[in-house]
Amino acid sequence: MNKQLEKMKQNEEYERRKRMAEEKHKEWVQKKREEERRERKRKLTKEMAEKATRELEKLRLQEKADIKYKEWLKKKIAEDAEKKKKEKEKEKEREAELQEKKTRSEKIFKEWLQNARNKPQPALNGYGFPHGNSKGLYIQYTNM
To answer: Are 25 and 19 a contacting pair, CB within 8 Å?
Structure first.
């Protein structure tokens, strides 16, 4: 009887210890899962924060690039306008020079024309040749 009772006590003790070990194992597994869940949540939060930081940095750099591009574009437009203005001025100067040259040429031509009218005409029968040409012996050489 004693042995049976002792054996029963041992079995009960074994069963109790087994249940305790299973409960502790379940608690440990549950704690481990909870820790893993918290760790995943912490990592996810950290990744989200880093991603948000990267996005903000990207936006800041994009805004900075946009500002620099606008400044460059404004400068380029101003340079182009200045270049066109200088080209127009040069074109006006060329046109003025051409007009002045034309006016001067016309004036000189009119003076020449006026002077040409006042010049005496050369004699038509110069050097005793009729109509200014020689006749006779020199004709052979001129017709050859």
So the answer is: no
How far does Cα 132 stand from its chain's mean position?
Answer: 77
DSSP-derived secondary structure for 128-144:
G-GGG---SHHHHHHH-
> Which has more pLDDT, 117 or 21?
21
Q: Which amino acid is at 18?
A: K
Per-residue pLDDT at 132 exceeds 60: no
pLDDT at 26: 96
1 touches 9 (CB < 8 A): no
Distance separating alpha carbons of residues 9 and 32, to the nearest angstrom: 34
Q: Is the pLDDT of residue 125 over 80?
A: no
Contact (CB, 8 A) for 132 and 126: yes
- Cβ pair 135, 141 in contact under 8 A: no
